[in-house]
Amino acid sequence: MYDSMTKYHSLAIGRNGINQVNKTYSIRELASEFGITTRTIRFYEEKGYLNPKREGTRRIYSAPDRTSLRLILRGKRLGLSLDETADLIKMYGSPRSNRKQLEKFILRIGEKRAELERKRKDLEVMLSDLKSVEDKCQLSLAEHG
User: Fold this and answer.
1) Number of domains in the chain
2) What is the CATH number of the domain that holds 43?
3) At what angle do helices 38-46 and 63-77 cross, to 10 degrees?
C-alpha cells in the first residue's frame, strides 16, 4: 500500500517554509510532534501506511512518512476510517486533472458531511432531552426542598 502512496509525496514543506524532503525523523520525534505513542506509529507501519528505513533496529522516517502520518491523524480527527484516509492520501499530490479521483473525493466529502449533520441533529435532540429532564429535576427539588 505505501509504495503506491509514496510516489505522490514529491515535496514536503515545513512550517517555516523550508523544503524538508531530505529531513528524517526518529519514531520518538514523530510521536512527540503529533502527541501519539510510538506503538501507534508502529501500527500504521504494520498496516503499510508508513515505510521507514532501518539502521539496525532503529527506524528512520522520511518527510513523506511524516506527511502520511499527519494526513492519517487528520483523517482520524475528521472521523474517516483508515481505508478512507488511505484513499485520500493516494490522491494527495495526484494530478489535478484526474477528474474521477476528484469526483470521488467530493462524493466522500459530501457523504461524511451528511453523516456528521445527522450526528449533530441526534446530539441536539439528546441535549434537549437532557435539559428537559434536568429542568424537571430542579423543579422537583425546589418543590420538595
Assistant:
1) 1
2) 1.10.1660.10
3) 100
Q: Kindly report the pTM of this predicted structure.
A: 0.61
Nearest to 109 by CA among 140, 84, 73, 134: 84
Q: What domain range includes position 45?
A: 2-94
Residue 104 lies in a domain: no
Give 10-residue mean pLDDT values along the chain (145 residues): 41 49 90 97 94 94 93 86 82 63 80 92 97 96 88
Segment 64-94, tens digit of pLDDT: 999 999 989 988 888 788 988 887 777 765 5
d(CA 137, CA 116): 31
The Cα 49–Cα 66 span in angstroms is 11
In-domain check, residue 23:
yes
| CA distances for 43 relative to 59, 64, 133, angstroms | 13, 17, 43
